[in-house]
Amino acid sequence: xxxxxxxxxxxxxxxxxxxxxxxxxxxxxxxxxxxxxxxxxxxxxxxxxxxxxxxxxxxxxxxxxxxxxxxxxxxxxxxxxxxxxxxxxxxxxxxxxxxxxxxxxxxxxxxxxxxxxxxxxxxxxxxxxxxxxxxxxxxxxxxxxxxxxxxxxxxxxxxxxxxxxxxxxxxxxxxxxxxxxxxxxxxxxxxxxxxxxxxxxxxxxxxxxxxxxxxxxxxxxxxxxxxxxxxxxxxxxxxxxxxxxxxxxxxxxxxxxxxxxxxxxxxxxxxxxxxxxxxxxxxxxxxxxxxxxxxxxxxxxxxxxxxxxxxxxxxxxxxxxxxxxxxxxxxxxxxxxxxxxxxxxxxxxxxxxxxxxxxxxxxxxxxxxxxxxxxxxxxxxxxxxxxxxxxxxxxxxxxxxxxxxxxxxxxxxxxxxxxxxxxxxxxxxxxxxxxxxxxxxxxxxxxxxxxxxxxxxxxxxxxxxxxxxxxxxxxxxxxxxxxxx
Length: 485
Known about the structure:
By secondary structure, the chain is an alpha+beta fold. It has helices at about 5-15, 30-35, 35-45, 85-95, 95-105, 130-140, 155, 160-170, 170-175, 180-190, 205-225, 250-265, 285-295, 305-320, 330-335, 335-340, 345-360, 365-380, 385-400, 405-415, 420-425, 435-445, 470-480, and strands spanning about 65-70, 75-80, 145-150, 235, 240-245, 275-280, 420, 450.
């Protein structure tokens, strides 16, 4: 794919690489991208600091956080940096992308290279996990065993000082700490975007993906030298390694070398996910085709028979039981969206869809999308059932701080104009979360809250300091959008 110009790369990182893809589509940054040049010009015009550095080198802020469900695992924390912080970091990455890409290419085993996507939903290309599975099947035909392992809490554990190590080498970076070296500037801006912390990158922005891939590629380069391996021997899918040896090294030796190499960049191997497999091991291949084989088929314009869709859900359930460690249900529902939207008897299917979400919270974006598309197509979504479901569910989710699910349910209520009782929303008034606060006051501004919304906690962030806090989204958007009286 073309790298285009610095300005085009910057625009793409802001417009399609800012808000986490796990958020509802109401959170967009096209306007920020449109005015990127004038905003950055204004920032650059600010007076220098006392030390003679650009003013923005001292701009400290915090991301807005939320927790999104993962299949079979604990919720993952995602972050959206302060927009000023994201602009500044995106500019450095866009300006130096050609050199960053060249350095990342030192890895010959990566399956997730940092390549811009100029037409998709994200700024960077999304790698396919099927490539990892294909590597393992390939190795099984040639080697006696292979080892697998991943980096423990990869994004959350990246040491920001390791970023210039990956770009300039560790020895050079330790001798040259000035922000005139762009690796050091990236380190500084990453720390500033997280209240000065040196540990971790926010999960969600494509800037984090680009930086993480750069660090991982540096690990790969060292590992390739240490083990004498190439693309026929190993692969890395984001943070997930598959290793074999052309010289017959054991799986234990391969994992030991990986652990040692990761330590050079202050990273750790996740021992719980490390394993050695004989190449007679059965691979999880073909289940996607099995799911597709059961999809209801009908010509354009014809509705899906309810029995057809129920049969699909039954077969999907059987496949879920067979492959209990894979998110088969999410894959199946993604590919059956049109069948849901066009089904004849909606009521029974709506109940099944909500039940599927209760069983597997990671499908909440798909559930919400299907409900909205069905309402647009047929106007027969049972709003009374949905209102009761959302009111009861939010109350439960708030107790566990499952903010990602709350965000999606509030978005659904807004889009369907569902009125929620303030009494059921009360637990949310005690949660300091910019996304939740913004959506609740949006709901209230549209007259969709029955009762009084207590904004006392949230309104404490309506200050200059609040614009740099984790509540920055509420502090800015609630005022600009006119949601506050």
